[in-house]
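Record type: ASSEMBLY
Status: queued
Input:
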Amino acid sequence: MVSEHFDAPDGETAALALKVLVAGGFGVGKTTLVGAVSEIRPLRTEELLSQAGQLVDDTDGVNHKVTTTVAMDFGRITIRSGLSLYLFGTPGQDRFWFLWDELSQGALGAVVLADTRRLEDCFPAVDYFEHRHIPFVVAVNCFPGARTYGADDVSRALDLDRGTPVVLCDARERDSGKEVLIRLVEYAGRMHAARLLDSVS
Amino acid sequence: MTDDFMGAPQEPGSQWYDHEAGPLVRPYAMTGGRTKPGPAGVRFDLISLVTIDPGVPGTDDDTALGPEHRLLIELCRTETQSVAELAAGADLPVGVVRVLLGDLLELGRVTVSRPVPPAQLPDERILREVIAGLRAL
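Status: finished
Output:
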């Protein structure tokens, strides 16, 4: 590939970036979590939506907005020079599912943020990742004033596959967010190892 | 005329366009109307990393480059950037940045890392490094 340099075979210059998605219902704290663990202020990228580009040159479009912008917040954690973790807050609305498909391509895994007062908001995200066999953890954002449930209760209420980790967290706290990510990476590693074993047996 | 705009009641069709109307220059005007990157088969993931070749001369003399191309090169000059970071840094939609990067790749101005294929994800050694790195944050 073009980016490989022959003078550095140890992989020093072959920078590696990993992608983690942060999903969940509207207002559950996705951007808060990204901001809490990111070393950069969460950045915003916009994707222009139009029907296969056919409308973007439509000059009538000034009065009738034909393109929609979807914003995605993201942050970065540099593990070391040449290895970084990017966190993407997924667009909340269901009609942007197709953007998830692109986002989840090659993703290491996902964090599904849940609020126990509106648990149903995270059902679509749970379904999405389960169907695509993308490793995910459910992080219950413990809002002040919300009744606290145990991880087991949440796991049962969401009817999660066995082994899917449920972590209680505070999305505003850096340490709490770190813990969620560590659990995810550990779990993604286990899932991957299990899949490798499956493929050789 | 702009003074009137602030206070006066607006008749339909008579007002100046404000931010609600979107950018006055259509985003894909910067790409000459192209919505797909040039070289066939190149897919720029949001986390594809873009590096400029240090041996490449300055951009001043190259008429093939537009201001947005130059901006992207400048952004990469300090450090390797992901496609997502470039889009945020240049304040351009990701789709537009992808087309512009396709041009730069074709011109040999930048190199782009291939995202890790899902089947190879994740290398155990890398994951251990990530976990250790997260703990150390």
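Annotation: DSSP finds five helices and seven strands in chain A.
Annotation: The domain at 16-200 of chain A is CATH 3.40.50.300 (Rossmann fold).
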